[in-house]
Amino acid sequence: MRIVTKYQSPNYDMRESVIDTIVIHYTDMVDDAETLALLCNPKAKVSAHYFINREGIIYQLVDDDKRAWHAGISYWRGKSKLNDNSIGIELANPGHLNGYIDFTKSQMSSLISICQSLIDKHQIKPINIVGHSDIAPDRKKDPGELFDWKLLSDNNIGIYHDIEILSESEILYHDNDYGISDIQKKLSSIGYKIDITDVFDKQTSEVIIAFKRRFIKNKLTNDWDITCQKILDYLYSRYIA
Asked: Where in this chain does the record put each N-acetylmuramoyl-L-alanine amidase domain (predicted)?
């Protein structure tokens, strides 16, 4: 695995927490040079540890032991400020605002390689391999529904499921319904920031869309259907219970 260190970002500070999480992003930009310029611009106050372009070239912009500025306001499994304890990896992709497209095989191959290396080095648990939308569901969509989480899981990176995704599935809950505390508790136990209110509120809606973006990938509404329930129950029983 070749890592290019030609570009170094000044946008970091000292890390005081143990690394236990990897956060995967997309760049939301169309040009590598523009991406590298932004991530290395001290005025931008944003960075990531790694950037992988569409040819699969891995650039390391910040040393692992430094705190890069990639996560923003965030939460996962009881921890906020995920910059403190995570490695941030940016994948070149125009994103939802600029013509969202599939990630390339070269990108995914390089991502698998760097993730496996980081997991071995820092003993990172599968449940702590997350997307930006997992840790900030109220404001982020990346890496998005085209990202192949199953491929990562097949390579022992992150969590996924083997539940069949049905084109039509009975809706169990939607806006303003009551009686969903069990769903909220299980989503919380996986890692999402969600209050146990027993009400299908705005926060619950945002978390459900993030959950579906990662584990279902179609019908990105906030409706909670039987397929959602089966996947949540599977993830809970395999990784939590």
From this structure: 9-144
